[in-house]
Hints:
By secondary structure, this protein is of the alpha+beta class. The protein has a domain at 27-64. The protein is 22% helix and 36% strand. It contains one helix and three strands. The longest helix is centred in the N-terminal third of the chain and has 14 residues, at 10-23. The N and C termini lie far apart (43 Å).
Amino acid sequence: MCKISKSVDVHAIKERLEQIIAELPNVEEKVRATLVDDERYISVTAVIGNKVLCINFMQSREEE
């Protein structure tokens, strides 16, 4: 069953990220992944076993 939640608080987002971390398998070998990090953008794209992880975190505008 699919559940969609809108207008959640930051606590709910942190819980979801922790849930994702807990489900990632522990593997010793390198996996197919790309990590991007600059001052306004962080991205993770990875294939780990039969799981695909995609996270994009970016500034929506310049801070004043």
